[in-house]
Batch of 2 targets.
Target 1
Amino acid sequence: MNWRAVYAIYLFEMSRTGRTVMQSILSPVISTCLYFVVFGAAIGSRITEIEGVPYGAFIVPGLIMMMLLTQSVMNASFGIYFPRFIGTIYELLSAPLSFFEIALGYVGAAASKSIILGLIILLTANLFVPLRIAHPGWMVAFLVLTAVSFSLLGFIIGIWADGFEKLQVIPLLIITPLTFLGGSFYSVNVLPPVWQTVSLFNPVVYLISGFRWSFFEIADVSVGVSLAMTTLFLAVCLVIVWWIFKTGYRLKT
Amino acid sequence: MITGSPAFAGDDEWEYVYNNFMQPIITVSQLSKTYASGLEALKNVDLTIRRGEIFALLGPNGAGKTTLINIICGIVKKSSGSVTVDGHDIVKDYRAARSLIGLVPQELAVSAFDKVWATVSFSRGLFGKPADSDFIAKVLKDLTLYDRKDSQVMTLSGGMKRRVMIAKALAHEPQILFLDEPTAGVDVELRKDMWQTVRELRAAGVTIILTTHYIEEAEEMADRIGIINKGELILVEEKAELVRKLGKKQLVLQLNGKLAAVPPQLSAHRLTLGPQGDELIYHYDTRGERTGITALLNDVRESGIRFRDLQTTQSSLEDIFVDLVSERK
Ligand SMILES: Nc1ncnc2c1ncn2[C@@H]1O[C@H](COP(=O)(O)OP(=O)(O)O)[C@@H](O)[C@H]1O
Ligand SMILES: [Mg+2]
């Protein structure tokens, strides 16, 4: 293993965040606050609580997940797409590096950023509503697992994309809708039965449900299933990344 | 002390000498590349690069120079054949092979937002070398970039950006340096500096492979020259040998009348008669002690042959190149 190289990529990507603090940290925090005001205050005045949890608190895990997913995907996809776009990818390809190490550097950095962001949002949310975390260990586990899985997904998108449109289309047209429909702001149980069944095909449902369970011990699907589905998603992404590496897809002509 | 054996090197010494000085540092054998488009960019290329030499790969645009370099460096996948770098296969043993190589690609590609120092250090890190700020400082100073070490790359001129790319390639102390069209679009001053750097690197034992489509550049810098066209390596020769061929000149006397044969009075000069019979052609070496031109002209006058014009031509590397390339058509 060329750990120095992994570390170099990791540091390089993290310092990119440093340069763009406004964009990378501040804007997600501000939009989270806005969600809070709009959903928490507006809807929260009508729905006081869900399954015994005050509505304002109920949406916190969903909000964090939503930011975690979009930011992981955007950070990781941009991180690897950018060198491809400007041509500096030659440096990664000609270095004594395995693809696995390249992925580790980029995915590690993207996941770290999302996790930090998730924790910042958690602290921000705590200013609005008192929060109680029933299983902090599991909370962190879901946070990390999700950040890593979706950073991997982002990495895949960044390698597949051949234009900036494609880079933006996935988060915009797939990730965001899936999160909204994945129970960020409601319990899936309140949906009509047909839609409940449809929801089960949405991987984000399992993430949010598991994450919310670690806070309030309420869940749409059982925690075991949540964990299994998250791990499965991670495994699928790993297989795709492994395949990309094996074939040099979109990286080597 | 008296020993019976003469001054023959022992086997160990021989092996040492062979491994360190004579063994080729890069061996390319039967290398072919067909791009997904079906284009055959390289056709059964065989090439060995000697340790410590400056090798110029000369060929017109689209000849396959970049493809060859990119395969050796791990950027393009080969279709068939094999390449070893210091004995390491570039596929099976890619880490060992690549860690010896520094690459300055043809296209200017460097992230505009990074600072010079950071991007050069990053390159070193990618090659798994521990940080060494003294060494990075030296590289930057050698390339007269040190003053700009804290500048963002985007604030630099095009020539300076190219220097940054060279610094990045040198950051991990490579033994082999590839320069793909290093002087394309580069001003005279940078060109001079660049050649200075190349000479210093060579003096330090670095093997340098550069590509160019400028003949003078190959002539000026290289120890050996390889000529490539349409994916085929046509010729590999010591530069000195090519220059010797270049040293040949010819003198053409355009006669007033026609001759059936070279007159016997002139036989000492090894002349040839032009196809129309109205030209006498004389070959000579510009770098010989004497060219023999005075004697020839004297004899011509004495034999009563009148000429109305004369011209000299030199076969340049360009001619050799054009000949070689057109022969292949
Ligand atoms: N990625 C690619 N896909 C298809 N054809 C390519 C690709 N890269 C180069 N070529 C073609 O291969 C040939 C050799 O190109 P190249 O190695 O860049 O030549 P040179 O560096 O000598 O100018 C050219 O005809 C070029 O168009
Ligand atoms: Mg080229």
Target 2
Amino acid sequence: MEYNKPIPVVDSDSEPFWASGLSGKLKLPHCSSCGKFHYYPRTLCPHCHLTDLSYKEVSGNGTIYSYTVQRRPAGNEFKDDVPYIVALIDLEEGPRMLSNIVGLAPEEVAIGQRVAVQFITVSDSISLPVFQVQK
Amino acid sequence: MKNNTPVIVGVADLPLENGKFAGGENVLQAQAKAALAALDDAGLKMSDVDGLLTSGVWGLNGPGILMPVTVGEYLGITPRYMDSTNIGGSVFEAQLGHASLAIQSGQCEVALIVYGSAQRSARARSFGGRPTDLNFQYDVPYGLANPVGTYALATMRYMHETGARPEDLAEVAVSARRWAQLNDAAFKRDDLTIEDVLNSPQICDPLRAADCCLVTDGAGAVIVTTSERAKDLKSQPIDVLGFGEAQASLLVSEMEDLCRLLPAEMSSRRAIEMAGVSLTDIDVMQLYDSFTITVLLTLEAIGVCKRGEAAQFVRNGRIAPGGAFPINTGGGGLSNMHPGMFGIFLIIEAVRQLRGECGSRQVDDARLALVHGTGGYLSSGATCILGRA
Ligand SMILES: [Zn+2]
């Protein structure tokens, strides 16, 4: 199946992140100096500015911090998807991610809902993490 | 000793018809006309300009490249000070600070701040088409329409935390419209009720069309010089008493607290401190209203009201004509005009208020104004304090 929506232009910061979902795991950069995860992936830790970073698996569980229902598409590629949910997810490990809530009617989404990651593979090297509400 | 306190001596904006440049001007023509009009307002000539500050989303090889050089060449001037800071709609408040510093330190004597956009004529505004590289690779693939999406996420969280209602957001839009009805130049002047706002088309929940700024053309210019030079000029000088700028996040996922507009908090504190005034001394405020939520977050960030109390604050017409707290007296980005980067028009309206030129929308004896711009995706902020001597 062809994927027609915009996909990330991967760089060496983001390559392990976008690829992690190919094996069904969510991995984020972790700083061994300050012990914190961060998102989005960078060459330096945005918390302590040191560079002792390595990718580690995270739970993929979190809660919805905020959301919006897109009634207008973000460009033509999304026009078949409206209305769709874009949300900010606070992961258990700390970082906040922007993603989609899938498999849920727009009127059922709420701040504070518990969510779990799943993946949409869009190319040989990219799997987009999205989230589903835990029932 | 020579008095080199920075003062605004000229302002102008280009008339629009149905939100478009009346003469079909392109961005360079529009900026030239606005610049000439502002110089005329000041009683200065183009050849007096030795500092040029401009910004925008047009240009060679995409936005921003060689912008002051392009404008300077077109105008036929060779400035010795230039600035092309590009931090979104707040840039002109930042550039007013930069121009003031340049004037105080003798880098230039007559600074022109100028902006133009023909976005409505060019039908250039769209939610799509952003690149998916660098930072944007983390949000464009998820279909967040920006900037409105970021502001919608902030609004949703704000309503959740504070109990603010859609009616409270609508109050901001209705107040802006009532000011616009007193401004002959404003684009949207028909009646607007809370109910109209709540029935306007949904864009990004909870924001509706009437919560969003207009899409118009627009060009404006501001002339800054020393108070010494201003003595010989015809216009009433307006002092630039304080300024500050700050940035926080580009991506909304990087914003730690969606209910706290950190750039506004930081920049306004510095501007007020520098001016040596207190918030309660301010007679009129011009606060960037890209979306209705922007006004609520800004009122709280600069300290007009406490966290979570702005929704209550704006109720019952407090910020509307006749209310106790006049803001965005020209109708703002919501009802007057919004050519992509609105910040320069906030300065122009503040100057006109301080000069007492605003006719039926004039705030009585306005002597001190606060102007605050917010740029990008709640990303940057810049504040200026302006005063009539
Ligand atoms: Zn660290």
